[in-house]
Amino acid sequence: MSETKLPLDDAQHADSARALADVLERVSARTFRDELIDAGLLIPTGVDGLYGRSEVFESVVEGINQLVTRMGADQNAEVMRFPPAMNRADFEDSEYLKSFPNLAGTVHSFCGGDREHHRLLKCLEDGEDWMGDQKPTRVVLTPAACYPCYPVVAKRGPLPAEGRTVDVYSYCFRHEPSLDPARMQMFRMREYVRMGTPAQIVAFRQMWIERGKQLVETLALPHWIDLANDPFFGRGGKIVADSQRAQELKFELLIPIESEEKPTACLSFNYHMDHFGEIWKFRTEDGEIAHTGCVGFGMERTTLAMFRHHGLDVAQWPASVREALWGAR
């Protein structure tokens, strides 16, 4: 007796289409990643989203970094450079764990004595879990380059009348293993962080939206700006994300890397309102809680966009792009 096949309803069709799209995206991401690895631009480590970078790759990153510096030369920004780890207490105060617990990375270390050390060695020898005596340290991995600067500035007292701008650049970590090379677990973020009144932050963000478009146009990359939201966690995450979009707090500059259908956010333009000002109690000159915002440049993502759209051989890139990155050679 032949089996009767029931027609798929609309929901089943949609689920099937999404599943197929996910498979195609993974194939596309794997293909581009493999091309980058075969060309020696990325160096695999055996962990998805964790790569070494070649000299050529780093030269592009540094060229983009210098282009950002030139574009922000008029910002009178205070340069702060932090390691890719931050004070765990400041991290807890930031409320990152309320919104993104799944992305956070903590640093643990061995805290036992001789007996525990012998047990650790025995576990290693037997191929068993050796993490039992690892304890949390006072540091966590930095989730965003701007996070360490807020408590530092807050301790200085009220902001000057013109507010303050900070230039930060750091490796960041997010536990998000993926075959997509544009979704790395360890990546660099360059930011200009603005602190001051709401009007100062809004004007800063609008200025950098225009400058961000100018930067990627100089690099001859296809792009567009779109309203966005952060990937908030849990049942309440959609409500927070919808609120963020409704208030137009976050915009992203998108460039196709993995696919045309799902472009990648390479720059972001964010208005945090008084979130960090309230947490660390830093104020404007007139005593009001300070507002903050930032423009973030995804250094690896923008570099990957260059290789995606201009090819894997930098010697063949357009002359104007090479000039913008490295000057006359």
Automatic annotation (TrEMBL):
Q: Which SUPFAM superfamilies match?
A: Class II aaRS and biotin synthetases
Give the superkingdom in one word.
Bacteria
Stated EC number for the protein is: 6.2.1.n2
EC primary class: ligase
Q: Does the keyword Ligase apply?
A: yes
Read off the CDD domains from this record.
Gly_His_Pro_Ser_Thr_tRS_core (cd00670)
- This protein's name: Amino acid--[acyl-carrier-protein] ligase
Keywords of this entry: Ligase
- Gene Ontology MF annotations: ligase activity
